Queue: 3 jobs
Job 1
Amino acid sequence: MAKDYVVAVMGATGAVGQEMMQTLEKRGFPVRELRLLASARSKGKKLVFKGKELTVEELTEKSFAGVDIVLASAGGSISKQFAPYAVKAGAVVIDNTSAFRMDPEVPLVVPEVNPEDIFTNKGIIANPNCSTIQMVQVLKPLHDYGKIRRVVVSTYQAVSGAGQKAINELLNEIEAVMQGKPYTRTVFPHQIAFNALPRIPQSGGIEDGGYTNEEMKMIKETKKIMHDPSIQVTATCVRVPVVRGHSESVNVQTDKDISVELARELLSKTPNVVVLDDIHNEKYPLATDASGKYETFVGRIRKDDTVNYGLNMWVVSDNLLKGAALNAVQIAEKLIGK
């Protein structure tokens, strides 16, 4: 008989925590007991899992007794504080924050790209940044064929990447702007309604050279996941007034020629990647179509003739699913051999 597991969701009341619960249920993960953990202010809230109402518990150092797997998405500082207690209690933590991603002792995993790294864990496995996940999914088959030398990526990121408060701010600000009323924002530094912000707010600051942490995550994480520090990556991350679904313009230079037709063939054979590339019939990836889907979509595949062996692509995925909750659950599935 297959084993059932005690699973804890850390940050259960947040946008990603909610998606984690739904994804566990939809994918039939063998959960014997689900513990919902959050801050003291969320203690006592009721959430539904598999038709049953569960009560949110306050996250403490003693929350992990008997827990097999922890899906964590409560913020980096919370993960750093509590993940060691979970590991000490015998659990494996799959962490969705940036707390452990660049720790050389912690595997950083996208199951379609580097599943073997899951089994090198010492109690913690890191979920990459949402924008990195969807990009490396399409980079991997190209890299396997023709070794990627350089990537130039520009992102168009949905507000849900900054949480439920950011979604509310966008919707409320749109209404205020349409009515010509003033609006006091609390999440974004500038108007997000009908605008694009070329710095991802809440990304943790600015690094040397003027790059944001969000951009540096994509640069550093790509090298780690792909096991190739020689890949040159540069990124510009932008927040756009989309509720759900990140889009990316990805320019790739390889060390040998990959035709558009071959790129489509390689990508179409990649697990959980869907090629949607018929511009003459207006078929290409859209955030509105990717929302709620497990797959990552790629289209607008075309040659970049300004460099040797260059390709352009347009990549879209649901940032709350493949970019967060789904990727974490897939790691857990691999971990238990499901």
Job 2
Amino acid sequence: MSHIVTIQAEVRDPAAVAAACRRLGLPAPVRGAVELYSGEAAGLLIELPGWRYPAVVDAEAGRILYDNYGGAWGEQAQLDRLLQMYAVEKARIEARKRGHAVVEHALADGSIRLTIQVGGAS
């Protein structure tokens, strides 16, 4: 039996954030504080390609703080890719914790299909 699942991710798992950064070839996130245009933010700092300011993961609140000035200071697509990879990596981590196998398929539209097989680790 298969199911289609849509995930709205809260970004709370630092290990999944780090895995997403590795997959995207980004520098490892570092804990710190940074002055964004609109004020200071603290958490895991992520340097996205072409962005003026880092994205800041506030894992406790489950959110990402950023200032890309409507795309002028960084492409929204970069953040969207990070969120997509975070959701994939978090789903993989949780499935594997439960002993399930995970198979990943990249689709032509840029989305990713994960197939989780109950009971078979991979």
Job 3
Amino acid sequence: MHSNAFKNLWFGQALANMGDVFYIVGLISLVYNLTGSAVYMTAVPLVITFSRFISSMAAPLLLNRTQMRSLIAYSQMGKTFFLCFFLLMLVLNIGNVWFYLVCASIISFLDGWALPARNSYVPFLVKREELMGANGFLSTVDQTIQFSSWALGGILLALLSETNLFIIVILLFLASTFFMLRLPVIPSTTLEVRKVWWQQLGEGWSEVKRRKGLLPVFWIYGLESISGTVWIAAVLYLYVDLKLQRGEEWWGFINSSFFVGLVLASYAIFKFHGFFSKHRHKWLPVCMIVTSGVTFVFAWNKMALLALVLSFVFGLFDQIKNVVLQTYLQESAPPEELGKIYAAEGALTTLLFGLSSVGVGLLLEVLSISTIFSLSALLLLSTLIPVLYLQKNM
């Protein structure tokens, strides 16, 4: 974990993640200023989610033809190019809201290649016994960046303007590209099998089906993607308003408490990765039971302070579960196949989360917020079934 290659990977990805958050902050503000419409604002995350889903589906085609370092670096380069074009149109006041949404779609499409490639890079750069610690460290960095960048992005937007914020994003993307280009070249597999393009698109799914130990992991990811939609911003906003009957600031407090739990869990795994790795078969069912129970109590709770505690506990155990699953996935397949498997996982979770977000919105019209959270808790509890299958292979 102390190699220069691993440092280049995490630092370059941290800069890219910070730039992504700043970009979304600036884009949402720009779209609202151009249209004054909340509908167009909600289109921003929808466009980003859909584009990343398409990108995840197409990733196996690129992974078969492109070296991983090139894939990560060139995707970042492409994002930088389109953002420069985006900024030029903004400065010249030429584009309209649809132009900016199309640019956002292209940038998100390019971004969809980076995460599967990064995660599949990790087993090449660290020892097997260090995988749990490396994933914990990367999660610590990711969550810290996410937690701080939204607040920092809002501050920078208030102090500067959308244009200046996009300039900062371009600089972050350029710096990220520099570090990605310094990654070592990973030798490609010597076995070449000629396949038509539609067969290549399904290679990740074929690997999952062939490696029986990965099927329960994907079942867990799928069920959690559906249940996790109750924690999106819009649903939590309603929870604060209807259940807690508090002001908007408590919406921010609950989100912050959740992210603090994520960061602390990631840091604990990084520091004590040997302990977590040794007992991971015990941690997984415990995390499922705790997150399910916390969600159920959260559903019917009316005390604001208890909501903060529950959100923190959920974030803590949810992140432990994420890192354990991530490590298991990386150990369950050859490193050269991980990119395709991660692409399949990204496509599955992105699609289910997007569809479930729409479904939750429709259910909120006919069911109470407490009932919605209770259904989520039951879904989380049902993940114990694939966990029991998974434990046989751990």
